[in-house]
# Entry
Amino acid sequence: MSGHSKWANIKHRKGRVDALRARITTKIGREITVAVKMGGADPAGNMRLKLVLQKAKENNVPKDNIQRAIQRGSGAGDGSNYEELTYEGYGPGGVAVMVEVLTDNRNRTAADVRHLFSKYGGNLGETGCVGWMFKKQGIFLVSADGEMDEDELMLLAIEAGADDFKTEDDEYEIICSPEAFEKVQMVLEENNLNLNMARIAMLSDTTVALAEEDGQKMIRMLDALEDHDDVQEVYSNFDFPDEE
# Structure
């Protein structure tokens, strides 16, 4: 079940954390506020909040920022109403792209996203045009420098409910269904494993290999989308060799 990871976009995001620190803190704060508004301030009974708090931990979001976002969601302070939207389209070379946003102005955001697709050689499509290529799955990235070896960790993950296990550089990647996410996370944490990432994401089983020119355009397009204030997540199915 091991092999080379397909999820280039997730690794790409992970590598840009330092450059996007302030913006990521703002975006995660917005996501916390929406999660609290929708499901309450107790992460034990609010899976969405639990996931975004995990994301805040991974990105070292200050506790004060987290607390302020929770208070806003509970009714104190900012009364902005954010709308969740997903845009779908194609990037350079026919790559499938899904963009999840939280916005208080859908017309502004739609125009901005459409412009960014076009600017980098892509085009925004209709709802459903690429969504069928993606499936919601849980993903964990576990540091490979722990005491547990690869075979032992793979067996532990599979027994906990994981569907797939891959080796990627200095990390292990574990994939599971959304339903098994909490159980797998609990087992990994109980065994004191260093989780570099724990996320429920939209992943594709197929990838599109890009040549150098299209690959560079795709990376610039991802960077531009992720830099937009309203964009929370960007998923794509491109494959671009590290050496290029």
